[in-house]
Amino acid sequence: MHTVKQSNFTTWFKSGSPWVWMNAGAVAVAVIMTLGLLLLIAVRGLSHFWPADLVEAQYTIPGQPPITLIGEVTTREQVPTERLKGAGLPVDPEKSEFMDRELLKVGNRDLYGADFRWIVADWLSDERYPEDIMAIERREWGNFYGYLLSVTRDGQVIEGEQAREALGAAVERAEGIYEEIHSLETGAIGKINSELERIRLRERGYELNNALTADRKAELEAERAVQNALYAELEGQLVELYTAFNRDSLMARAMDGQEKRISLSAVVRVFHPNAMGITDKIGHYFAKLWEFVSDEPREANTEGGVFPAIFGTVMMVLLMSVIVTPFGVLAAVYLREYAKQGVVTRTIRIAVNNLAGVPSIVYGVFGLGFFIYFLGGNIDQLFFPESLPAPTLGTGGLLWASLTLALLTVPVVIVATEEGLTRIPRSLREGSLALGATKAETLWKVILPMSSPAMMTGLILAVARAAGEVAPLMLVGVVKLAPTLPLNANYPYLHLDQKFMHLGFHIYDVGFQSPNVEAARPLVYATALLLVGVIASLNFAAVAIRNHLREKYKALEN
To answer: What is the C-alpha separation between 102 and 60, in angstroms, rounded?
Structure first.
């Protein structure tokens, strides 16, 4: 009986089934871990936008007078009593081995110097959730938590029950004026500044070429006068808008009794989380989500949105794809269809495969040295001398970042395209040639269309790698905060020389360079989830195109 069981086990083992089950188990574990990681990122990131209730309580440290705290509980944890004692807190280590502590977001950084405060939960008492506590999101100094005392609207002080109604209308008015100011500054005034800079560069170019005649100078002065007149008119409008913007204010009382006057020009929104129903909270939640993906960052990137980073990431990936695909395909076609197969070709293939394993920071250093300092510097000398010493292409920008990542990902496209070319049956090539087509026609009308799914596979892999890269971008064009988008209404509309924001670098900056660590932490998770979503969207679009091409040319393969 034992011999029969051993024989069955040997047969089963030799059949390869254990390896099948082992691989299936490894794949299952990898999928579960990936989904778990995405779920963790989603919970930690998306929960940040929910309007949590604000607690007001008495906090009494033994041996000290009680104080009133108002804030939002963001974290709860158990810590050893000895750890609290080592931090200088008057705890009794014999009372309990562990104690609960909470991280309370108290806001009001302009009053207390920090947004967050660790407290011992056992020392809290008289916890309550008054409905009239308000949360004020500000453009500076973070949130303010407290009670509304009065609203000053057009010089008139409104108190009592009418103040809350007046505050909502006043905040909505201020937000509308802010949108007008932002549109004016980034639109019309930005266009005038761009035109004035173009006039200055034309004048400088004439001077360098000794061609600044009196007629040309008069023409430039006339153009400059037109732009200055437009600017003076818009400046008057801007002064009026700012006067109206700074007109209203509110008076609020903080948790320690301090009264604070806040200009409504600094207020983004005011809400009362303890008085909000579930429907109101859901509406607030999605409004915050929309702000996150559509607005510009503020408060050292720890508040507001990440739209410039989304735009910069997508622009860079699309430009990189446009660059890397033709070069990768041409290299693969030459190696497979035209190059003589031998030692040199095999050496080139080995080199291409090895390039795929080079650390990305090496490509960043190469891009900095070759693209920016050498190529960009020489281009500035030849084509943009009027801008010097300020560099045009001799500094990091969207173009050099895209080229650097194209160089980083071109081995992936070459290898994937070569594999697709290898799978095309030889009979199709011979049939096309037998029907009178030239080799070039065969390549263009038969081989390339049939290998297009493989090209798309290479592009998908290239996008997946390039979209999340950060290290090389830090050297060739990405910045913490870009003043404008690389694609805007100012001539020449697409500014390849301009620095840009990137989601990957934004995660690094917020997570490791922010002075307000606790405020930044949830945004790291939210931005990471958004980056995964952007990469997935780009890949899904490429996969859809690849599947369409595969179905289109499946009949030819059969």
So the answer is: 14
Q: Which residues contact 68 (CB under 8 A, 6 or more apart)?
A: 56, 57, 58, 59, 255, 256
The DSSP-derived string for 9-77 is: HHHHHHTTHHHHHHHHHHHHHHHHHHHHHHHHHHHHHHGGGS----EEEEE--TTS--EEEEEEEEEEE
Cα 291 from chain centroid? 13
Q: Residue 269 has what pLDDT?
A: 92
**Alpha-carbon gap, residue 350 to 466, rounded angstroms:** 22
Mean pLDDT (the chain, rounded): 87
Contact 254, 239 (CB under 8 A): no
Contact 471, 364 (CB under 8 A): yes
Distances (CA, A) of 334 to 309, 329, 353, 414: 37, 9, 16, 10
CA dist 507 to 146, 318, 480, 510, 522, Å? Answer: 31, 21, 10, 5, 11
Alpha carbon 401 to its chain centroid, in Å, reads 16
Specify the DSSP class assigned to residue 333: H
Query: Rounded to an integer, what distance in angstroms lies between the CA atom of residue 149 and that of residue 159?
Result: 6
Of all residues in the chain, what percent carry a pLDDT higher than 70?
Answer: 96
The pLDDT tens digits for 39-72 are 999 888 888 899 999 999 999 888 889 999 999 9
The per-residue b/e assignment along 378-411, b for 16 or more CB within 10 angstroms, e otherwise, is: eebeeebebbeeebbbbbbbbbbbbbbbbbbbbb
22-to-8, 11, 244, 363 alpha-carbon distances in Å: 19, 17, 70, 37
Pairing of strands 98-105, 67-80: antiparallel
**Residue 7's pLDDT is what?**
67
Distance from first CA to last CA of the chain, Å, rounded? 51
Supply the pLDDT for residue 450: 84
CA angle 249, 254, 257 (to 5 degrees): 115
Is the C-alpha dihedral spanning 413, 415, 416, 422 positive or negative? positive
| Run of H or E including 220 | helix 214-245
Amino acid 463 reads: V
**Are 146 and 134 contacting, i.e. CB atoms less than 8 angstroms apart?**
yes
Map residue 520 onto helix, strand or coil: helix
At 240 the three-state DSSP class reads helix
Question: Three-state SS for 142?
Answer: coil
Residue 514 CA to residue 186 CA, distance in Å, equals 26
Q: What is the DSSP letter of 484?
A: S
Which pLDDT score, from 0 to 100, does residue 32 have?
Answer: 93
Query: For residues 22 and 11, what is the distance between their CA atoms, to the nearest angstrom?
Result: 17
Taking a C-beta distance cutoff of 8 angstroms, is the pair 256, 266 a contact?
A: no
CB 545 within 8 A of CB 456: yes
């599947």: which residue's tokens? Answer: 547
Q: How confident is the model at residue 85 (pLDDT cuts 50, 70, 90)?
A: confident
